[in-house]
Write a structure and sequence with these properties.
73% of the residues lie in helices and 0% in strands. With 168 residues, the chain is mostly helical. The protein has one domain. Helix 1 runs antiparallel to helix 2, helix 1 packs across helix 4 and helix 4 packs across helix 6. The protein is flat and about 65 Å long. The mean pLDDT is 81.
Length: 168
């Protein structure tokens, strides 16, 4: 497992490079879905990436450098290749559907573009975050915390009751 501070540092460097090179992630797009998918990629990197035996016994600076460079590569691949290409396809699909069929005029589409895009990308990004949370078992931790907070009224699966470990 990669350390959270390595993945967080990689995300900070990734956004700093995007800002320096003027490649913003969201031009005419809602920001929240991209942030949710970035959090998903960070969560998957921190929980599902295994560092090799050689690096676990090496010095901390070498391990940190490896984890940060690896995380930057996969953050860029996850965001640019997966999310932004999917988001671009959704934008084209929405525009062709709404303006091509005559449901919305071109001027109205441009005026409310972020709302049209967000109506599909926000639920999709929440679904991606939910599936990743289930994969990394963080969803179960949130459910346990909600159960403790709300009392015994909330239902939690028996395998995730207090004091029991998760199955991997």
């Amino acid at each position: 497992m990669a350390y959270w501070y390595s993945v967080g540092l990689a995300a900070l460097i990734y956004y700093l490079c995007l800002w320096i090179y003027h490649r913003p992630l969201t031009i005419d797009k809602p920001v929240l879905p991209s942030v949710l998918v970035l959090m998903t990629v960070m969560d998957l990197l921190a929980c599902k990436v295994h560092v090799g035996e050689e690096l676990t016994q090496s010095h901390e600076p070498v391990k940190l450098l490896y984890e940060v460079s690896f995380s930057i590569f996969y953050l860029d691949m996850g965001m640019r290749d997966f999310w932004h290409s999917l988001e671009t396809k959704i934008i084209v699909l929405i525009k062709q559907t709404l303006t091509g069929s005559g449901l919305v005029s071109e001027g109205n589409f441009v005026s409310y573009k972020q709302y049209w895009i967000g109506s599909l990308t926000l639920p999709l990004s929440l679904l991606i975050l939910l599936l990743a949370g289930k994969t990394t078992k963080h969803l179960q931790l949130i459910m346990n915390a909600a159960t403790k907070l709300l009392g015994s009224k909330a239902k939690v699966p028996p395998a995730t009751q207090e004091g029991e470990d998760f199955e991997e």
